[in-house]
Design a protein that fits this description.
The protein has about 210 residues and is mainly alpha-helical. Helices cover about 55% and strands about 0% of the residues. It folds into two domains: about 5-20 and about 135-200, Helix-hairpin-Helix base-excision DNA repair enzymes (C-terminal) (Endonuclease Iii, domain 2, Orthogonal Bundle); about 30-130, Endonuclease III, domain 1. The longest helix has 19 residues, at about 80-100.
């Protein structure tokens, strides 16, 4: 897909959703980081059901570390992979306290050095908490990038790099939100709802699901 077409695709999404935001509930870079770690293979809605109790019990990295994997696990059992996530969060809280004085670091390398934090999670935190122009590629964006022709790639990193290259610079910060919300609610995995897609005229998907002509 040419850059001009990619820009038109993104501008159509922007017109339909001028002020996109993450659907994860958070009130600080720390709570955002914890929520994004918990969101792996879980919906944001499910994460938002468990984080109020977790944040009340552990409002700081030190408190999270003190709660420990067992205490964290008791509060997040409804989430997939909760045991591994509990271990990661306990260690993450300890490292934030030890290495960063209880603050969330602002570089990708430092974020990715934390337990349970990969490139996608780091990109979300950099974008949402610190206003960086990053592109976090999850399953929705990976699918959408390949299906629409917006940013084909065999790996999330390849899709990320293609999106960053084709996205107009002034739109890059918000593009992650436009794309993830579009993939979550319109360009769905099993049944894309092309008939209500604001960017359908700029999409290269060959099997568009459209209403019959009148």
């Amino acid at each position: 897909m040419p850059r001009t077409q990619a820009a038109a695709f993104l501008r159509a999404l922007a017109a339909a959703n001028p002020a996109p935001e993450t659907e994860l509930a958070f009130d600080s870079p720390f709570t955002l980081l914890v929520a994004v770690v918990l969101s792996a293979q879980c919906t944001d809605a499910m994460v938002n059901r468990v984080t109020p109790a977790l944040f009340a019990a552990a409002p700081t990295p030190a408190a999270l570390a003190a709660l420990g994997a067992e205490g964290i696990g008791a509060l997040i059992r409804r989430l997939g992979l909760w045991q591994a996530k509990a271990r990661h969060l306990a260690a993450l809280g300890a490292l934030l306290e030890q290495r960063h004085g209880g603050e969330v670091p602002r570089t990708r390398a430092e974020l990715e050095a934390l337990p349970g934090v990969g490139r996608k999670t780091a990109n979300v935190v950099l974008n949402v908490a610190f206003g960086e122009e990053t592109m976090a590629v999850d399953t929705h964006i990976f699918r959408l990038g390949n299906r629409t022709g917006l940013a084909p790639g065999r790996t999330p990193r390849a899709v990320e790099e293609a999106l960053v290259k084709r996205c107009p610079p002034e739109m890059l910060r918000d593009a992650h939100h436009w794309l993830i919300l579009h993939g979550r609610y319109t360009c769905k995995a099993r049944a894309p709802e092309c008939w209500r897609c604001p960017a359908v005229a700029h999409c290269n998907y060959r099997d568009k699901v459209l209403p019959p002509a009148a």
